[in-house]
Amino acid sequence: MLRKTALSALVIGSTLLPGAYAMPTVQPTQQAAAQQAVMKVNLNTASAAELSMALTGVGQKRAEAIIALREQLGGFSDINQLMQIKGIGPRLLELNKERIEF
């Protein structure tokens, strides 16, 4: 009896299984292309909305603080200058270093 149940499950499963794999999969080359298509943002020209959209961990208030510091400094020349802003530390800079340009 157990063999008949196992055999039935195997037959039914094999008929349903191909449909489960019919969904398209992402190829490794597509994943690499998606990772390379990182949205870059210029710290010296971007608006607060652009900064908050492009940078991980940066919301509207932090973006406004970045703009205020930019105006105070007369523009950014080094990514480490962002650490003067409360809540921005080495981890946040590491997450965003590929997205930031000057």
Automatic annotation (TrEMBL):
Q: Signal sequence span per UniProt?
A: 1-22
What's one GO BP annotation on this UniProt entry? protein secretion by the type II secretion system
Q: Write out the entry's keywords from A to Z.
A: Signal
Q: Which residues lie in coiled coils?
A: none
A Pfam match is HHH_3
UniProt keyword NAD present? no
Could you name the Gene Ontology cellular component terms for this entry?
Answer: type II protein secretion system complex
Name this polypeptide is given: Competence protein ComEA
